[in-house]
Amino acid sequence: MKFTANSLNLYAVTDRTWLNGRTLGQCVEQAIIGGATIIQLREKKLKIEEFVNLAKQIKEICQKYNVPFLIDDNLDVAKLVDADGIHIGQNDISLLDAKKGWGNNDKIFGVSVQTAEQAKKAQIQGADYLGVGAIFPTDTKNDASEVSIEELKEIVQTVNIPVCAIGGIHKNNISRLYSTGIDGIALVSEIFNSENIIENTKSIAELVKPFGSEDR
After folding, report:
1. Catalytic residue status for 216
2. How many domains does the chain have?
3. Which CATH number does the domain housing residue 137 bear?
4. In the prediction, which pLDDT does 10 show?
5. Which range marks the domain in which residue 25 is found?
6. Is 40 inside a domain boundary?
7. Is 115 inside any structural domain?
8. What's the pLDDT tens digit per position in 50-90?
9. Which residue in the list 7, 99, 107, 112 is annotated as catalytic?
10. Active-site entry in 59, 99, 107, 141
11. Cα–Cα distance for residue pair 83/75, rounded to 1 Å
């Protein structure tokens, strides 16, 4: 699966909280139709068998639309379903261990960072992109530390790999990030907590056009 900075333009991170009778597969497909450019499957509580089965379903949908499919944190699941990549946090498996454990240089490795120092370290160790946040207060991840817009700009200027922002981002504050140099934004509830995910994502896709107009 080809990965570029533009893949991060509209990064959808799953959450089954807002299914409202729909399957996660249906919600993911609707998000992609609406304009999501990359999908991350985030599941913290599923048993391994359930996680793998769900991941296979979501991977099939992503392949249908040629959209990169990543697993959050869980290297075992990522390997079992042959995902396109994995996203890891500062308290998850280390990037070096993840790369060694997968042994596949064609995979996408994303890392969450909050400081320029963490960003430099991740780039040196071979991260393909960085997720920076939380940029704004968020209920989705209660333990996330906030990163100021000035710190976000510093991180972007420190590295030469793609950067996306995450955390508390919604339609009304996306424009505050236009001058930061990021390649895209990652959203959870702003995409999936909607009765009409396709139309909602289309409206967000219009707002993120200023990001990632060129590959970095």
Report:
1. no
2. 1
3. 3.20.20.70
4. 98
5. 5-207
6. yes
7. yes
8. 999 999 999 999 999 999 999 999 999 999 999 999 999 99
9. 112
10. 141
11. 10
Catalytic residue among 22, 42, 56, 216: 42
Is the pLDDT higher at 105 or at 158? Answer: 158
Say what the pLDDT of residue 1 is: 73
Residue 42 annotated among the catalytic residues of the structure = yes
How long is the chain? Answer: 216
Residue among 3, 4, 58, 2 nearest 31 (CA): 58
Q: Alpha carbon 119 to chain centroid distance? A: 16
Place of tokens 């807002």: 18
The Cβ of residue 208 has, within 10 Å, a number of other Cβ atoms equal to 23
| Dihedral, CA of residue 145, residue 149, residue 153 and residue 154, to nearest 10 | -50
Residue for token pair 């780039």: 123
**Is 112 annotated as catalytic?**
yes
Q: Which amino acid, 85?
A: G
Q: Measure the CA–CA gap between 30 and 202, rounded to whole angstroms.
A: 10
Is position 156 within any domain?
Answer: yes
CA dist list (Å): 101 to 20, 97, 125, 197: 37, 6, 14, 36
**pLDDT tens string 125-179:** 999 999 999 999 877 666 556 899 999 999 999 999 999 999 999 999 999 999 9
For residue 53, which amino acid is it? N
Residue type, 54: L
CA distances from 36 to 17, 47, 128 (A): 19, 27, 19
Site of tokens 């790999």: 161
Rounded to 5 degrees, what are φ and ψ at 182? -70, 165
